[in-house]
Design a protein that fits this description.
six-stranded antiparallel beta sheet; Phosphorylase Kinase, domain 1; Transferase(Phosphotransferase), domain 1; alpha+beta; 11 strands
Length: 286
C-alpha cells in the first residue's frame, strides 16, 4: 500500500504495532499506552526537541476515502485551537506509512484518575477548566463529538486538557460505518446516537462527565431521576449546582444549554455556591 498524503492507492495488511525503542522519524517509541477502535496511542520521546510526547496513530486500513479526507480537514481545524485547556497538536504527518498525530504527554487520563475518588474542590476545578475549553471551541464553531474521561488529559499543577477535538468526528463516523456503534450509550447524547450531533450534544456529554466526577457513578439511559449516585451528589453539592447539571443532561435537546458558552456562564453563576457548606450563602441540597 502506498500513501500520497492521506490518499490510499493500494491495499495490504494493516501496519504492525510499534515496538519499544522503535524509531518513527524523530520519535523513539517507549510503550503503548492506549488502544481504541479508531487509533492506538504510544508514549514516545522526541529526539530532536528532547521532550516526551504522545503519538496517536489512526488505523488507516479501517478508514474509507471520505474518512481519510475528514482526518486531514479536522486536523487543520484542531491545529487552530489555542487554549490552555485544549490539548495542542505538536505535529501531524505521514511517517513510514503511519499517520502520526503528536501531542504533549500528560500524566494520565481522567478515566484513570476516576478509579479513585475525586475530591469536590478538585472536581470543581476540573469542571471550570473543561467548560472554558468547551466554550472556546464552540465559539470557534467546532463540535467535539466525543467528550468523555478518556479524552481528558491530566497535567502537573492540576491542569486538565480536553483532547481529540475534531478527530473524534472521524472515530464516530468509523464506528457507524463498521457497525460497532451499538451497545451502551455512555457519554453520547440521544440525538448524537441517531447521527445528529450538535453543540447541545457536547453539552449533554459534558454534563454527564461532570455528574460522574461529583457523584462517582455514570448514569445510563433513560436517565430518570434520582440517578445512581444521587445521594452522594446531594451530600456534596448545592441544589443550585444539581439544577445546573440536570439542565445539561436533559433528554430533550431544546431544554439544555444551547452551547458550551451558555453552559460556562451558567456554571460561573453557581460556582461560588456550588459546594455544600459554601461560605458564600448558597442553598444546600436537601
Amino acid at each position: 500500500m502506498r500513501w500520497d498524503g492521506l490518499r490510499k492507492t493500494g491495499s495490504k495488511p494493516a501496519s504492525p504495532p510499534l515496538k519499544a525503542r522503535q524509531m518513527l522519524g524523530k520519535y523513539r517509541v517507549r510503550r503503548r499506552i492506549g488502544v481504541g477502535a479508531f487509533a492506538t496511542v504510544y508514549e514516545a520521546y522526541d529526539t530532536i526537541e528532547g521532550v516526551p510526547v504522545a503519538l496517536k496513530i489512526p488505523d488507516l486500513d479501517q478508514l474509507d476515502q471520505e474518512s481519510l479526507n475528514l482526518i486531514r480537514r479536522e486536523v487543520r481545524l484542531t491545529a487552530r485551537l489555542e487554549h490552555e485547556n485544549i490539548l495542542p497538536l505538536r505535529n501531524a504527518m505521514m511517517i513510514d506509512g503511519y499517520f502520526v498525530i503528536a501531542t504533549p504527554l500528560g500524566r494520565q487520563t481522567l478515566a484513570d484518575r476516576l478509579h479513585r475518588r475525586l475530591g469536590p474542590k478538585t472536581a470543581l476545578s476540573y469542571t471550570e477548566q473543561l467548560l472554558s475549553a468547551l466554550a472556546y471551541a464552540h465559539e470557534e464553531r467546532i463540535i467535539h463529538c466525543d467528550i468523555k474521561p478518556d479524552n481528558v488529559i491530566l497535567f502537573p499543577g492540576g491542569v486538565v486538557r480536553l483532547a481529540d477535538f475534531g478527530i473524534a468526528k472521524v472515530a464516530l463516523r468509523t464506528r457507524t460505518i463498521m457497525g460497532s456503534g451499538q451497545g451502551t450509550v455512555g457519554y453520547m447524547a440521544p440525538e448524537q446516537a441517531m447521527g445528529k450531533p450538535s453543540f447541545r450534544s457536547d453539552v449533554f456529554s459534558m454534563g454527564l462527565l461532570i455528574y460522574r466526577m461529583f457523584a462517582g457513578e455514570l448514569p445510563e439511559w433513560p436517565f430518570d431521576w434520582p440517578l445512581p449516585g444521587a445521594e452522594r451528589l446531594r451530600r456534596t453539592v448545592s441544589r443550585d449546582f444539581i439544577s445546573f447539571i440536570r439542565r445539561a443532561i436533559e433528554i430533550r435537546e431544546r431544554k439544555r444549554y444551547r452551547d458550551g458558552v451558555q453552559m460556562e456562564r451558567a456554571f460561573q453563576a453557581v460556582k461560588p455556591r456550588a459546594l455544600r457548606g459554601s461560605t458564600r450563602g448558597g442553598r444546600s441540597a436537601p
